[in-house]
Each structure stands twice: as C-alpha cells, then as structure tokens.
From TrEMBL:
Residues 3-178 form the Flavodoxin-like fold domain. Homodimer. Its EC number is 1.6.5.-, 1.7.1.17. Quinone reductase that provides resistance to thiol-specific stress caused by electrophilic quinones. The keyword Ligase does not apply. Binds 1 FMN per subunit. It comes from the Bacteria. It catalyses: N,N-dimethyl-1,4-phenylenediamine + anthranilate + 2 NAD(+) = 2-(4-dimethylaminophenyl)diazenylbenzoate + 2 NADH + 2 H(+); 2 a quinone + NADH + H(+) = 2 a 1,4-benzosemiquinone + NAD(+). Gene3D superfamilies: 3.40.50.360. The lineage of its organism: Bacteria, Bacillati, Actinomycetota, Actinomycetes, Kitasatosporales. InterPro entries: Flavodoxin_fold, Flavoprotein-like_sf, FMN-dep_NADH:Q_OxRdtase_AzoR1, NADH:quinone_OxRdtase_FMN_depd. This is FMN dependent NADH:quinone oxidoreductase. Its cofactor is FMN. FMN binds at S10.
Length: 211
C-alpha cells in the first residue's frame, strides 16, 4: 500500500515557503491516494538530538548491542528507521540555511546512515531503495548556472550524495523555489517577478509529482 512520509524542517512557521509547498503537495497526493498511509514529522518544531559517540557505536555495531545507548535513544532511532522503510514516497521540506541544509536535517540523516542501509560497493539497490523522494527547497537567492552565486549551493549536491549512499536516490527529485527574499528585501525588488515565477513553477512541478 502507498505510504507518504512528510517531513518539514523549517524553523519558521506559517510564513515558511517549504512548509507551504510540502503541505500543498501532501494535500494533492492524499487526494490522489485516498487509501494510502501517512506519517508526519516536524524536525523544525521537534528536532532530533545530534548523535553521540555511544549512538554511533550502536548504529555501526553488527551485533546490535546498546553500548550505553538509552532505551529512549534506541526507540527514537528505530522509529525513524521504521518511518523511512515503510514509506513509498518521501517529501522533505528543506530550506537553505547559509548555503546548505538545516542542522535538524543532518541529525535525521545521521540516524539513517548505517551499515544496514548503505549500499555496498557495486550494489544497485539496498534496504531503502525504490522509493520516490521529493526534496522541496526554498532559497533566498538563486544558484542557477550563470548567476553570481553559482557554485555556492552546498545543499543539493550534499543531499544527492548522502541519499544516494543509502539507496534513496533511485527516484530523487529536487523542486527549488528560489529568490524568496525578493518579496521582502528592498534591494532585491527588481527580482520579484523571477521569484514569483520560480514559486509558481515549483507549485506546478509538485502538482505533477503528486500523481
């Protein structure tokens, strides 16, 4: 049965562009899949603690021994693993913070990158392979080819690499809403039409991906 995992990560609330876009995608997706399962996790409101040495040792221990990990830590990590494994589609709302991802996303990823999930050398699939993954981003500026900050994007390249390492890049799509600051920063006012077009394009792309 289809199952959607919906993750928001913005530290902003109602004014967050990524939250608005993921919510619109989820509404359309659930209308198109009325009998599907749904799980929501808000890493912006309830961030996952960064892993400790003990947690990492436990995650990489093939015997599964606790190594001092508390039952609460174990339960949290196992819940995160279960959510990803159950999902057939994952939508991630990831704003760009300082040219990269929020630390809350890194904490979530660090719990998933384990030997049980990583693709062995030469392997084409693993435990998490075969899912549809949509990463929805919002960026104050633009990082497209030919722009002044081309090459400053440390968000998409990192996510492509790390999600690919654990088998979540088979059907990976990025949907960018760029120039979001043009609506609120006077010095960028001349770019407002481009920002509005980028947002409209993102909405249309997500509508198609929700089928």
């Amino acid at each position: 049965m289809p199952h959607l995992l919906h993750i928001d990560t913005s530290i902003r609330s109602g004014e967050s562009v990524t939250r608005q876009l993921t919510a619109e995608f989820v509404t359309q997706w659930r209308q198109n899949h009325p009998d599907a399962g749904y799980t929501y996790r808000d890493l912006g409101a309830e961030p996952i603690p960064h892993i400790t040495h003990e947690v990492r040792e436990w995650l990489f221990d093939p015997t599964g021994n606790l190594h001092g990990v508390t039952p609460e830590e174990q339960a949290l990590t196992e819940a995160l693993h279960a959510e990803v494994r159950e999902a057939t589609t994952i939508v991630l709302g990831v704003p760009m913070y300082n040219y990269t991802i929020p630390s809350s996303v890194k904490s979530w990823i660090d719990r998933l990158v384990t030997p049980a999930h990583m693709l062995p050398p030469g392997a084409e699939s693993g435990a998490l392979s075969g899912k549809n993954v949509i990463v929805v981003t919002a960026r104050g500026g633009s990082y497209a080819p030919g722009t002044p900050r081309e090459g400053w994007d440390y968000q998409e390249p990192y996510l492509k690499a790390v999600l690919g390492a654990i088998g979540l890049a088979d059907n990976l799509k990025f949907v960018h809403a760029e120039l979001t600051f043009a609506a609120i920063v006077p010095a960028m006012a001349q770019l407002k039409p481009l920002g509005e077009k980028s947002l409209a394009d993102a909405r249309e792309t997500l509508r198609k991906l929700a089928l």
